[in-house]
Amino acid sequence: MKLLISFLILFVILIQSSTLQLSISSSPSRVNPLLATDSASSEIADWIFNGLVKFDKDGNIIGDLAKKFYFENNTTLVFELRKGIKWHDGEIFDAEDILYTFNLLKSPKLLTPYKDNFKYIKSVEIINLYKIKVVYKEAYFKALSIWMMGILPEHLWKNENNPMTSKLNKMPIGTGSYMLKKAFKVNEKIILEANPDYLPHKPNIDTIKYNYIGDTSTEFITLKAKKLDIGSLNPLQINRQLNDDFKSYYNIIEQPSQSYTYMGFNLRKEKFKNKKIREALNYAIDKQELIDLLFFSHGKICNGPFMPNSPVYPNNYKPKGYNPEKAKEILRELGFTKDNPFKFELITNTGNDIRINASQIIQYQLAKVGIKMSIRTMEWQSFLNTVVMPHQFEAVLMGWSLSLIPDAHSIWHSEGDKQGGFNFIGYRNKIVDNLIIKSQKIIDSIKFAKEYQKIFKLIANDTPYIFLYIPNSITVVNKKIKGINPSVIGIMHNQIDWTKD
Q1: Which letter does DSSP use for residue 86 in this model?
Q2: How far apart are the first and last CA of the chain?
Q3: 343: Cβ–Cβ under 8 A, 6 or more apart, which residues?
Q4: Are residues 266 and 157 in the same domain?
Q5: What is the pLDDT of residue 181?
Q6: Would you say the C-alpha torsion 74, 80, 86, 91 has a positive or negative sign?
Q7: 349 and 281 inside one domain
Q8: Is residue 238 part of a domain?
Q9: What is d(CA 72, CA 70) in angstroms, rounded to the nearest whole number?
Q10: Furthest CA-CA distance within the chain
Q11: What does the alpha-carbon distance between residue 400 and residue 19 come to, in Å, rounded to a whole number?
């Protein structure tokens, strides 16, 4: 009888447990928030570690390990920490862990690009075990957001001599909602288990399994076989390749992606110095047609350098739309005719069929107003090293990621106009430069947003790029999963509240 009861209890436990089946396209290198620079490492680290703050579903910064934060003045930030948080090994989290993480980040033993985000910090002071004070050398607009960086456990890491090769990069211990079941190996499944001590509560889904799937075609086949709970689709798949069985199993969630594609001009070239010619090109390109042809209408027109529906996007901005007659008028004013057409070369990279197709559509559209554009494609690294960075181009077709808290300095400030800089088109506007520098010292998010809205309008009006399109992100989710609430930061923000039937 006792054996039967034990078997029934075990059976009930197994029935009640739930697993989220996900995919990952490459193996993590180091699951350490201070070292995770590739997308796979960052994705796994996000489950395991917490920062002091995080984004809520609306893109506002709220407390995470910190229950409260405030500025005493423009250069002093105070965090009051949550009590009762445990590391995955049962040890208690406190302020010592934050100070240790900061000191390790500064250490010459650690080689990471994230050091730059913390270079304005003068000191980190422990007030008590649940309160710290961060003093900055000067007011800094990222003073709060940089503390989204995951915190490491001091009691484990203090014993490691080489943080770059530590075993803790393969078997990390954090405070996050999920824990690694075992150290990960290259190209093998990664299994995460729910943290029973996670606050505010243990995730409702007990296990997350990451299946290694190296390409999007295989991911689509795996989705159709119903072996994944969440995956991504491209516009062709969603428009032409889904059957009723697929649609009955998955919900489809479609949102603008956090990236845009643009045509950038080399503003050092004489032919592009006159803003009117750039405006003519902008009027001549039908961006909606691009979206319809490339993405089966699953996208939206990009009007400027910052994310739509974010605080830094000007709500009253009215872009200049498609107007081929206006383009022809400007070309005539500038002396270009059928016998003397405006000519230039556009270069983009191979390995990206969307960009190559976009180039060909743009070429056709420009030809209709009398502009002759030739196209050259190159392998990505050659494109970057021999064309983009040494500024050996007339125009390029490329893309940038979008951020909820943008930093315009590297791309749009004149200082970025240098060999190896991200302002490789050579954009210079003294007013924009001054606004960028001014904004870097604003810690009030509302005031910061107002300054960046000004920057947006100035850049868009200058037309240094032709901002083209923002493709949609198309995600499918198993209908058995309940509680998903899509937002500006995606769908995972409330994953601990999801359930799976």
Answers
A1: B
A2: 31
A3: 371, 372, 373, 374
A4: no
A5: 84
A6: positive
A7: yes
A8: no
A9: 6
A10: 97
A11: 35
Find the domain containing 387 and state its range: 259-472
What residue has token string 């796994």?
44
Identity of the amino acid at 14: L
Task: Mark out the alpha helices in 174-323 (DSSP H runs).
Answer: 216-224, 235-240, 244-249, 270-273, 275-284, 287-295
Residue owning tokens 């743009």: 362
* pLDDT number for residue 438: 96
**Based on the domain organization, do 492 and 453 belong to the same domain?**
no
In this prediction, residue 3 carries a pLDDT of 46
Lookup: tokens for 356: 């190559």
What's the structural domain count of the chain?
Answer: 2
Burial class (CB in 10 A: 0-12, 13-18, 19+), 137: exposed
Check which CATH number belongs to the domain holding 137 and give it.
3.40.190.10
| 142 closest CA partner among 123, 125, 118 | 118
Q: Residue 357: which H helix or E strand, with range?
A: helix 353-367
b/e sequence 393-406, b meaning 16+ C-beta within 10 Å: bbbbbbbbebebbb
Asked if the structure places residue 148 within a domain, the reply is: yes
Q: How high is the pLDDT of residue 184?
A: 81
Separation of alpha carbons 117 and 315, rounded Å: 29
pLDDT along the chain (501 residues), means of 10: 44 61 90 91 96 93 97 97 98 98 95 92 98 97 96 96 94 97 83 97 97 90 97 94 96 94 98 98 98 96 93 91 97 96 97 93 98 96 93 97 90 93 96 97 94 97 98 97 93 96 89
What angle separates helix 287-295 from helix 353-367, to the nearest 10 degrees? 140
123: CB partners within 8 A, 6+ apart: 134, 135
Whether 88 is in a domain gets the answer yes
Question: Quick count: other Cβ atoms within 10 Å of Cβ 374?
Answer: 12
In the 8-state DSSP scheme, what is residue 87? Answer: -
SS3 176: coil
Which run of H or of E encompasses 400? Answer: strand 395-401
Distance CA 326, CA 88 (A): 63
Supply the Cα-derived Rg of the chain in whole angstroms: 25
Closest CA to 491 of 468, 466, 474, 469: 474
Beta bridge partners of 63: 53
* Residues 47 and 198: beta-carbon distance below 8 Å: no
Q: Count of residues for the chain?
A: 501
| CA dist list (Å): 29 to 153, 366, 439 | 20, 45, 35
383 and 404 together in one domain: yes
CA dist list (Å): 495 to 115, 177, 336, 486, 490: 30, 9, 57, 11, 11
Distance of alpha carbon 325 from its chain centroid, rounded? 38
**What's residue 453's pLDDT?**
97
For residue 413, the tally of other CB atoms under 10 A from its CB is 23
